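One such given next:
>
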Amino acid sequence: MKRCWRRFLRVAAALALSLGLTQVSASENSLVERGRYLSTAANCVACHTREGGVAYAGGLAFETPFGVLYSSNITADPIAGIGRWSEQQFIDALRRGVRPDGQHLYPAFPYTAYTKITDSDAKALYAYFKSIKPNRYRPPQNALRFPFGERRLLGLWKRLYFDEGRFEASPDKDRQWNRGAYLVEALGHCSACHSPRNLLGAESRDLAMTGGVHAHQDRDGKTRAWSASNLTSAPAGLAAWSEEDLIDYLGKGISARAAVFGPMNEVVESTRKLSQGDLTAMAKYLQALPSRTQKISSTAADADALSEGRILYNIHCGTCHQGTGLGGDDTGPPLRGSAIVNAPTPESLINVVLRGPDRPKIAPSTAWQSRKWQMMEAFGDKLADDEVAVIATYVRSAWGHSASPVTEMDVARQR
């Protein structure tokens, strides 16, 4: 009888929540709003919302080297979502990568970064997600190759690669730097995309923030590899970016150095909603990251390929980006010192040459709308794979750059 009564209360509470009949205090509302802001900083909606689906209902596919994973439903639904989770169960999932049933979560959910989230922020996030209207959508089952579908193996993975622990402020740094570090390293989990990974999918600690590769579904519905830039102060990274450039890029989607496109569209959709103080803190922290680079290929670019690449560059690219690679205020962004051009691997550069920049569906700011740069065309139908390869090789070698050459096969993989 008691069990039936408890079940009735749970169902009644879920129904009241879905109909908006529950009453909350001003302090609870404040906690929910704080959690909403924190979820924005963490960009939770991007991963937990499938194309055309309800926000936070999950179902977004992640193609990994181990198979396909689907994001979970994190609405307040008691059956399909997290409506029955206690606050501690939510915090354990967030910071320890453990489900209420004790099973391990796959690190595609970035608990390796979220473990740093403070107690108060974790509780605010819980309050926010419990306020989200329940949705009964059930994501598909994961499709992982054997033995990666065995969750118990993740216990060994965690012992090797996961260090649980909260963010600790650096006493020798100011408050703003520490806030930026918390946003970038914990909530923003920037290293998840911007760091290389080993064969078991763990981030390299020695080369953190020096660039990575991840899969992303493009506007044509095909999943392709994209290279994430080096975010350190290295010449191949953000050395050419000013603090104002970073603030503008994250807050407006465009700066003097670059305009947002591709996978970063979803990131800036969240960062543009952050406070000016938080954007400044992130910029200051990123600018302070010590210069680090990955070992580049020892294969030198072929002289004939560089010569052909320079000619094709001048024909197809030089008008907007200039022969100097410096671009122009009303033509195109600079390629000299570009973090995309100099990324450890060339996938993003190839993608933008083949199909043009995959721009955001909704303009992130009036500054983005009023940009004077010319709209870059797609060259995939005009240029053969070998021609794209020599152009990419040229821009990765010109103007003092020292990035690895691009092969015809590299381009073919991105078609």
Remarks:
- Strands lie at 61-64, 67-70, 143-144, 212-217, 223-228.
- The first strand starts at residue 61 and ends at 64.
- Residues 118 and 166 are 6 Å apart (CA to CA).
- The two ends are 62 Å apart (CA to CA).
